[in-house]
Design brief:
With 112 residues, the chain is of the alpha+beta class. The protein folds into 2 domains: 59 residues, no CATH class; 45 residues, no CATH class. 48% of the residues lie in helices and 22% in strands. It has 5 helices and 4 strands, in the order ββββααααα. Helix 1 packs across helix 2. The longest helix has 15 residues.
Length: 112
Amino acid sequence: MEKIHRGNGFAVIEKEGEYQISWPQGPYDQPVFYTISKENADRAFKSPQDAYEVMIYAETGQWPNVKEEKQNADRELIKKFPELLIRIPSNQELFTEDELKELMPLARKALE
């Protein structure tokens, strides 16, 4: 007998001890299905972040580098609001010396 466990934007299908994760994808929201372990099925329901990570792993075979993704998002935000380099000096660690040479004048100007 098949059991469908619904999550937020995905579902885990359990059938005869086997698990699949499914979610809509593409321009027509066609469902995709990937076989996963019971551990990953359980993990998908722990949090939205865990569900995202399980879906990426199911699709690519690699766990996402969450730390790197967060740093990239932070870098993009700081590029839009360079004054955050001065207000929060630890943000400077996210950039190379050359990038800082370009961003710091913008940061100073934004604080004027």
